[in-house]
Amino acid sequence: MKVIEGSFGKRSTDEGPPKATEVVSAILEHVTQLEADEQTVRIAAVIYVDNVEMSVIGNEQYPDGMYMLLSMAKDSIMNETLGG
After folding, report:
1. Where do the structural domains in the chain lie, given as residue ranges?
2. What is this structure's pTM?
3. Which of 9, 32, 44, 54 could serve as 58's disulfide partner, Cβ 3.0–4.6 Å?
């Protein structure tokens, strides 16, 4: 998995996390290029607002496909975090 905004723990605490709109814009640019190269792109994303809501969105048509995408993302993050 290629992480687009992957500077986990490397940003200054003064800066705070990147804005969600910045991350979405980076994803849009990346996906636009992939589709221009005629790649089939599947997307799964989680939107979480502290103590308000959590939404899971994507373009995969089946729940098991969404589960697979989210699991792959989780495993990739754990692999990077634990250096596996």
Report:
1. 1-40, 42-84
2. 0.69
3. 44
